[in-house]
Amino acid sequence: MTIRDWPAADRPREKLLSSGGSGLSDSELLAVLLGTGTAGKSAVELARELIGGFGGLSPLMLACRVGATPAKGLGPARRARLLAAMELARRSLLEGLREADALSSPADVKAFLRLSLQGRDRECFVVLFLDAQHRVIVQEELFAGTLTQTPVYPREIARRALEHNAAAVILAHNHPSGVAEPSRADEQLTQTVRQTLATVDVKVLDHVVVGSAGAVSFAERGLL
Hints:
Strands 2-1-3-4-5 form a five-stranded mixed sheet, with helices on both faces. It has two domains: 7-87, no CATH class; 104-221, 3-Layer(aba) Sandwich (Cytidine Deaminase, domain 2). By secondary structure, the protein is an alpha+beta fold. The radius of gyration is 20 Å and the shape is elongated. Helix 5 (76-99) packs antiparallel against helix 6 (106-117) and helix 7 crosses helix 8 (184-198). The chain is 45% helix and 15% strand. The chain contains nine helices and five strands; from the N terminus they run ααααααββαβαββα.
């Protein structure tokens, strides 16, 4: 039986439009994005199989990244839909951070940075430049490195902060190993950047480390 044969109240798309997404399971929401199933499987069954096969939504979405090895059940069209959904979510979060105090929505900051950095195969260092009201002026990926390290130049961050007339920054980088726990080198770098930016009256509000399963905030850990 295809989804078209289901009662209207049970069809994921109709449920989403009538009641919103909160009442749908992960498989049902993914089915809406997939659009169709495969031979002998409905979109919901395919979605359930994909989530189970990849071990959750997060690893499934990472498997859709640009440059990732094609995965069974995720052809170009389906990958494109999922990538578009992730990019729209990232842009929506950035839009909100440009309009409101970033410190008032730390969860949104971490969600945005996870969408920006998660799944990269090398370390990347990103800076959010903020105005005096802590609204995001611009996001810039300033440095990129290898699997285990990235060269970061605090004076370059200070120069870009002055060019953007920024009052504060939020630093972020990813750990391709998947573990979001900050290293001792991360802590030392953060203090060096803080000291350098203090000379131009720019504050470091946070440093977020992104891993495969989450993100760790220095501010929340009391490391700043």
